[in-house]
Amino acid sequence: MTATLGTLRGRVMRRRASRGAALGRAAAIALIAAGLASSEPFAQALTETRPLTENSTSTPVADDDPSAEPLRLVGDGSIRLGLLLAGGRHAAASEDIAAGVALALAEVNERVGGRKVTLLREDASRHNGETAEKARRLIAAGADILIGPARPVDMPAVRDLVDRERIPLVVPIPGARTLAALKCSPFVLHLTPAEDQIAAPLGTWIGERKTAKRIYLLAPDESPARETVAAFKKSFVAAGGEIVGEEYVSAPNPDFAPYLAKLRLMDADSVYTLFQGEPAGIFARQFESMGLTKRVAVFGPWPVGVHPEKAAVTGAFDYAPSLDTPENRSFREAFSRLFARLPTEHAARGYDAARAVIEALTVTDGRTDDRAMFAAILAHVWFIGPRGAIRADPRRPSMPERLYIVRAEEGSEGTRYEVLDRVNGNGADLCGVTKSG
């Protein structure tokens, strides 16, 4: 009897219901081969399988930083999971991703299929191009699977590297749209919607409810930010809103005072902004000092802990700590107990990325030597995480079924989150065709 793709998903779902009863390797191979052999680009990967042995390694590449200590090559038979993260303004998000991964591994005592899971980590600095070198270091150290990167701008180079080296990669950040013009890879799985797929529903939601009528757009001068602003702008205007100004800031430590003064002169009733890290802190302080907190509403994916005082921020997210589901309650309590803080969307994404790897490893009984087969299984896992039901899709971002409109406000006891609404998500086909979610 021929197994269909639906059969494969069903088997993975039933295995999830009975965690201890993993599919045997032969059964998994039969299911994958029958269900995916006719699906490009997986058919090509399946017919070009090149199993690696424990002694197989990639050639180490010298790091740009001569002071960086080389990663220790691991040959102890463990599963090597590489974290590819970043410093600078992405440092906080990187730490949250790493914390989410650590929690997921702790839940299985860092063992899957009788094998220990060893974490390897590399953090890139600010300059472009370094992340690919860091990924090569992880591969040279024996990483079987990668989770990363932490910066959308790094995706094209990392995608090309893992596709060439045949290393499964799980992407825990927005930014899949940056791959739209690139060849689809069977070794890359996106677990997060692209920024523009989050921004567009927010623009529609604000415009339809007349929450704001005259918005000023202010964002970093980067390609992903421009794409996000364009998606928000298009949907907001289509819903009847008006854009009164649009500015992009390139300095790493910008002075927002001139932009905020212009916002006030244009009589904007709200601002849509996308800053992270230290620039977000500068914006919050200047926004507050200019007396705008009670006059101008703030929209956008604002980082935890740097909201302007007494100003609520509303954004669209694939996660909010206040989601009232059994899975998120359990995740939130465990995360808070381990790290003494509430989880962010980055932590939930890191957790889901590790969960996807664990689900696939359970199916293969911990085997990672056949990388093409493992990537094919990874691309069709299903589970319910803190963000909701995650159904992996090899052709588009495997986002939750719903996005959440969340209002966040800083108080004496930290950030308070309120889920205002739920909206349908939309996934862009990474192989060139758009499908509705």
CATH architecture of the largest domain: 3-Layer(aba) Sandwich
Strand order of the largest sheet: 8-7-9-10-11-14-15
Note the beta-strand portion.
Answer: 15-25%
Tell me the major beta sheet. Answer: 7 strands, mixed
Q: How many β-strand runs?
A: 17
* Secondary-structure element series: HHHEHEEHEHEEHEHEHEHEEHHHEEEEEE
What overall geometry do the principal axes of the alpha carbons give?
globular
CATH topology group of the largest domain: Rossmann fold
**Total number of helices:** 13
Runs in which pLDDT lies below 50 for 5 or more consecutive residues are: 1-67, 429-437
| Oligomer category | single chain
**CATH superfamily grouping of the largest domain:** Response regulator
Which percent bin holds the helix content? 25-40%
Using only C-alpha atoms, the radius of gyration works out to: 22 Å
Quickly name the level 1 CATH class of the largest domain: Alpha Beta
Output mean pLDDT. Answer: 78
How many separate domains make up the residues?
A: 2
N-C termini distance:
30 Å
> What class do helices, strands and sheet pairing give?
alpha/beta
